[in-house]
Amino acid sequence: MSRLVLLLGDQLSRSISALEGFDPARDRILMAEVASEATYVRHHKQKLVMVFAAMRHFAESLRAEGLAVEYWRIEDPGNPGSLDAALRLAVDWHRPEAVILTEPGEWRVLEMMRDWAETLGPPVEIRPDTRFFARIEDFARWAEGRKTYRMEFFYREMRRKTGLLMEGEQPVGGQWNFDAENRKSLPAGHHLPERLRFPPDALTREVMAVVEARFGGHFGSLDGFGWPVTRDQALEALDHFIADALPWFGDYQDAMKRGEDFVHHALLAPALNMGLLLPEEICRAAERAWFEGRAPLNAVEGFIRQILGWREYVRGLYWLEMPGYAETNALAAHRPLPDFYWTGRTDLRCLAEVVQATARNAYAHHIQRLMVTGNFALLAGIAPKAVEEWYLLVYADAYEWVELPNTHGMALFADGGLLASKPYAASGAYIDRMSDYCTGCHYDPGVKSGPKACPFNYLYWNFLIANEKRLSGNPRMAMPYRTLAKMAPARKAEIVAEANAFLDSLPAAQ
Ligand SMILES: Cc1cc2nc3c(=O)[nH]c(=O)nc-3n(C[C@H](O)[C@H](O)[C@H](O)COP(=O)(O)OP(=O)(O)OC[C@H]3O[C@@H](n4cnc5c(N)ncnc54)[C@H](O)[C@@H]3O)c2cc1C
Ligand code: SF4
């Protein structure tokens, strides 16, 4: 029987389930760079280069193995323009007896696949994506009967299931979670490692030229592009992280520093989410570093929790709650996205730093995403859909299954607390404690009101006032609401007026 296997841009793993049982004598693979996927949000140029270059390198490696790959480059004359058109064309040409797919990372694409199953002609088999630790059904079973889901409990189940950092039934070191040790700011003079970047080869440079020519108006810059685009490079990046950054990952996981875009973070999510690395091999490499005394437990546990815990948890939640999940707006947030999310031009130093780093690298680390751009969007009441589009568009690792729960649930609390037990809302004091951004800012994090006041300060209290009915019953919000209750009505009115004047003065994005 001849089969046609469609591989998507985030399915670049040799072990992808769609390739199981592939018969090189009869079967063929279809890969297509298409405008509809490149522009449904106007992805950062580095994301487009990364995906197209990695697809081209992956197709070459498959061909080198003797597998038949039909490949559409974005610039090919007659490029079908969409996955749907590319697949229908290939089915017409080759008349396969079956079409084989691996489930996608996006609800929108799953719907397309379901439509193919009904309308394409040959039988369509959609296989589970076995690259994750938990199947979608495993998470659904775990979630059944729970009113809210908490990552920590899911994570413990995953530790037990995989045996990662376990001694029998007990966690190594006698604790499941070392997060309390992982909130240090960077001490003066702390050495940060030089990060491994990969100079683009001829094939990648070719893609860069095409992307600049066709998608030049998209966000971000291609200067200094250095993301891994092959499996070998991704493995090198993993080794580099384990040796040079992991030992300090825990201590300084939440720290931010001006001009230091990467601190001790892994920079692995873009390669991981495309399939160039597998989550299990990353976690085992980190675990080995602890066993061999090359990294402390707080770093290794903290790192493994991100992949075995958070990454699997947000995926499970996404598939359990979609499509309705994207439509909720629990805090009734409706303001437009301010223009500085695109330009980086603002007096708020922290926001300028993070947006400019994002344009430079298609990357910002977790605390920058959550506590600077995310925190601001939450406090300012920006419409979830606008914020989500921004996050899906600007990061090299952004795929909807992981971007949406992080933005909608974790950063914006738009799901009303399904993912997080309380909103991650913070005033300027938090950013001041965890970064050096406030030094040299036009505003002062110690000032609460007036022209020098850090806007995060009055926006924080304004957020609590605006959402009092929705949030004051949350036990984890009891402390700030007790403080708010002691505030004089005149002071509250002053905060609301100052916050609204500031928000109304922000130019909206075009
Ligand atoms: C608003 C917002 C949007 C986000 N959007 C994305 C996204 O589109 N794609 C994405 O992969 N991550 C997203 N994250 C999670 C996290 O910020 C990134 O995974 C991380 O910054 C990637 O950089 P790194 O590889 O250096 O990660 P590190 O900080 O070194 O962490 C190691 C790995 O853990 C995983 N991880 C860490 N935190 C999370 C998390 N909260 N959810 C899922 N996986 C996690 C990633 O695979 C990451 O590579 C988002 C977080 C927030 C707050
Ligand atoms: S003072 Fe406020 S706006 Fe300025 S960098 Fe600090 S937190 Fe950001």
Report on this model:
By secondary structure, the protein is mainly alpha-helical. It is 49% helix and 5% strand. It contains 22 helices and seven strands. It has helices at residues 35-39, 45-64, 83-94, 107-119, 136-143, 151-162, 202-215, 231-244, 246-249, 269-274, 279-291, 297-321, 340-343, 349-361, 366-380, 384-394, 400-411, 428-434, 455-466, 468-471, 478-485, 489-504; strands spanning 3-6, 28-32, 69-72, 98-102, 124-127, 166-167, 170-171. Strands 3-2-1-4-5 form a five-stranded parallel sheet, sandwiched between helices. The mean pLDDT is 96. Iron/sulfur cluster binds next to helix 14, helix 18 and helix 19.
Layout of helices and strands, plus pairs?
Blueprint: E1 3-6, E2 28-32, H1 35-39, H2 45-64, E3 69-72, H3 83-94, E4 98-102, H4 107-119, E5 124-127, H5 136-143, H6 151-162, E6 166-167, E7 170-171, H7 202-215, H8 231-244, H9 246-249, H10 269-274, H11 279-291, H12 297-321, H13 340-343, H14 349-361, H15 366-380, H16 384-394, H17 400-411, H18 428-434, H19 455-466, H20 468-471, H21 478-485, H22 489-504
Parallel strand pairs: 1-2, 1-4, 2-3, 4-5
Antiparallel strand pairs: 6-7
Bound molecules: flavin-adenine dinucleotide and iron/sulfur cluster.
